[in-house]
Amino acid sequence: MESPDSKLRDFGRLAGGGLMLMKIAKWGNSLVLRIPRSVAAEAQVKEGAIVDLSVENGRLLVRPLRIRKYSLNSLLRKVSRRNLQGKVSAVKTVGREAW
Questions:
Q1: How buried is 39 (Cβ within 10 angstroms: 0-12 exposed, 13-18 middle, 19+ buried)?
Q2: CA angle at residue 21 from 40 to 47, to 5 degrees?
Q3: Angle ∠(88,92,93) on CA atoms, nearest 5
Q4: Of 12, 67, 60, nearest to 39 (Cα)?
Q5: How far is Cα 55 from Cα 57, in angstroms, rounded to an integer?
Q6: Are the beta carbons of 64 and 75 closer than 8 angstroms?
Q7: How do residues 16-60 score in pLDDT, each as one tens digit?
Q8: Which residues of 43-67 are buried (b: 16+ CB within 10 A; e: fewer)?
């Protein structure tokens, strides 16, 4: 069985190998973990960032979610004759539309 101390040793390790212990707080009906500025900077997260929260092997993991932004031009540059789809009609014509 793992001792509480062994869990604390693994909790909050920084890239430099230092140990940072944080206390879980209560906020309404939820629990809160404050992220120190240095850790947020290293993880490149800011206030309002969307994160993926999961548990793996009993460990709480918080991963920044990187949302990719696309422009219409960058998407259209990827269209070629090979991947171009034919005409598609999702609805039946109602009037004098020409497809």
A1: middle
A2: 20
A3: 100
A4: 12
A5: 7
A6: no
A7: 556 788 899 999 999 999 999 988 998 889 999 999 999 999 999
A8: eebeeeeeeeeeeeeeeeeeeeeee
Cα separation values, 90 from 70, 87, 93, 99, Å: 25, 10, 9, 11
Instruction: Enumerate residues 6+ apart whose C-beta is below 8 A from 35.
Output: 43, 45
Indicate the CATH number for domain 4-64.
2.10.260.10
Tell me the β-bridge partners of 55. 60
pTM, to two decimals: 0.49
- Give me the numbers of helices (H) and strands (E) for the chain, helices first please: 3, 4
